[in-house]
Design a protein that fits this description.
Layout: H1 3-79, H2 85-161, E1 163-167, E2 179-183, E3 195-201, E4 208-214, H3 221-233, H4 236-260
Antiparallel strand pairs: 1-2, 2-3, 3-4
Helix pairs in contact: 1-2, 3-4
Main location: nucleus
Family: Belongs to the SPC25 family.
Subunit structure: Component of the NDC80 complex.
């Protein structure tokens, strides 16, 4: 398969992934928007109930004030009726009833205030959930855009580097854990000439190893060991990027050395 075919395959893959990402983004947007609307509706409902409870609280408070005023009036009336026993008994009974009613209203007021506070907390919670849903939707949109951008950049880098990954065909029992990197666009006199190497993991040390370079012996073993050492010291996130850049640079350096000494490149084994 030539470089043109690989480029077309990568372009098709990029287009397919971009399409799937767009589809997933739309699903996420629908979910986030639906969840946001539900949270906002619940928040508005809680706020409406809070206002209703506030009205009840105000009404209860007015009743308490009215009862307190009535109690004060009865006490005042009692002080003016000390000469008559019967009115005094009536006033005492009335005051006792008013005090009981007053205590009941005070308890009701406390309950209503507690319920109002609980509803305010729920309304705040739903408001925060609605904000989280908006944030999730925005993050998904930004992530999808960034991913599509990186896919496009990957295609550009492929076109520029002429880099291809293949399954290892070394024939070793560990070839399933190995990846072969094939570079082109290195030899200006023959841009399609492949330069390759295999990246694997040593079972005993659990460290990366670089081997099986083609053309044979173009990169000295010492240089391969240096690259492997540096590779194992890299952050895993940047390790592959480092490996690709280092190997490409090593191939180019050795190719330049061969050109200066007018040494022909050995055929691939």
């Amino acid at each position: 398969m030539g470089a043109t075919d690989h480029t077309k395959d990568l372009a098709d893959l990029t287009s397919e992934l971009a399409s799937k990402l767009t589809e997933r983004r739309e699903l996420w947007n629908k979910w986030a928007e639906s969840d946001k609307q539900k949270c906002e509706e619940m928040c508005h409902a809680h706020q409406s109930t809070v206002r209703q409870y506030q009205g009840n609280i105000d009404s209860t408070a007015q009743e308490i004030l009215a009862l307190q005023l009535q109690t004060d009036l009865n006490v005042s009336s009692k002080s003016h009726s000390e000469g008559s026993q019967s009115p005094g008994i009536v006033n005492e009974n009335t005051n006792s009833h008013l005090e009981n009613k007053l205590n009941e209203l005070k308890e009701t007021l406390v309950e209503q205030q507690d319920q109002k506070k609980a509803l305010e907390v729920q309304a705040l919670h739903e408001k925060e959930r609605a904000k989280e849903s908006r944030d999730i939707r925005n993050q998904v949109q930004e992530s999808a855009i960034a991913t599509i951008y990186h896919l496009s950049k990957a295609k550009e880098q492929y076109d520029w580097l002429g880099l291809e990954y293949e399954k290892s065909t070394s024939g070793s029992e560990h070839q399933g854990d190995e990846v072969r990197c094939v570079f082109t666009q290195i030899d200006s006199s023959n841009p399609e000439l492949p330069f390759s190497c295999t990246l694997g993991v040593n079972d005993q040390t659990d460290l990366f190893e670089v081997q099986d370079c083609q053309p044979p012996n173009i990169v000295p073993d010492e240089r391969l060991r240096e690259i492997a050492t540096e590779l194992n010291a890299q952050d895993p996130v940047f390790a592959l990027n480092y490996f690709v850049r280092s190997m490409r640079r090593a191939f180019q350096t050795e190719l330049d050395n061969l050109a200066q000494t007018q040494t022909p490149i050995r055929n691939h084994s």
